[in-house]
Amino acid sequence: MLMQWGWMPDIITAAICKGLEERGINGVLAYSRPPKRKGFLPKRAYVYDEHFDCYLCPKDQPLKYRTTTREGYREYVSKPKVCKACELLGKCTQSSTHIKVVTHHIWQHHKDQVDEHRYFEWGKQIYKRRNETVERSFADSKQLHGHRYARLRGISKVREQCLLAAACQNMKKIALILSRRSKRPSGGQISMLLVACIKGLWPNKVSSWRQMLQTERSQFINRKQNQAA
């Protein structure tokens, strides 16, 4: 099954683009101007030669591969003797050793492939829907579900807050769809919906929480029967 989605460029990494392609998802990125220091050459001035696995500077001097960092970035460096005598040294680097370093991720080709989707007509149509789906959901989470601030500390606790807010949003969407179909959800449907949301958030706790709900329900029925007697 082929899926399509629009994304903002600030949250997209090469690893995410690789995951999108592996899952058969056509991601569409908006154009974002690469950061550039004033008075220095932009990264696009250095051309990558895939055949020789090196970069070429504006003076056609090669920057050869040196190492790969733990984060997955390949480093290409210039020769200090050549750069020291270059007239573009002041616009190229401020390194005291006169070495220019250019990096790109080992999965950069996946990001380049996803970036090309925005040039197609179907990619333009997908990105137009971003403000109707993604941005609207974020705004709802921020204004109505407490995403403006984190209520707890720690990654795991903040993740629980985000997942609970997402479950509430999904329940609201389901209730809205049912109301459009003129079907009022019953108590059983609401319970099944709650259990499904809990199962998606904490699969290991579903059985214990279901047992707790059944116990509370039986206690409620017993109280009603005692009051009637």
What features would you describe in this structure?
The longest helix has 26 residues, at 155-180. This protein has nine helices and seven strands; from the N terminus they run βαβββββααβαααααα. It is elongated. The chain has 229 residues and is an alpha+beta fold. The mean pLDDT is 79. The strands form two sheets. A five-stranded antiparallel β-sheet has the order 3-4-5-6-7, with no helix packed on it. The relative contact order is 0.09.
Overall mean pLDDT: 79
Runs in which pLDDT lies below 50 for 5 or more consecutive residues are: none
Note the run of SSEs as H and E: EHEEEEEHHEHHHHHH
Radius of gyration: 27 Å
Summed up:
By secondary structure, the chain is an alpha+beta fold.
List keywords for this structure.
single chain, 229 residues, alpha+beta, 5-stranded antiparallel sheet, two-stranded parallel ribbon, 7 strands, elongated
What topology emerges from the helices and strands here?
Elements: E1 3-7, H1 14-22, E2 25-29, E3 47-49, E4 54-56, E5 62-68, E6 73-77, H2 80-84, H3 89-92, E7 101-105, H4 108-115, H5 121-128, H6 130-144, H7 155-180, H8 187-201, H9 206-228
Parallel strand pairs: 1-2
Antiparallel strand pairs: 3-4, 4-5, 5-6, 6-7
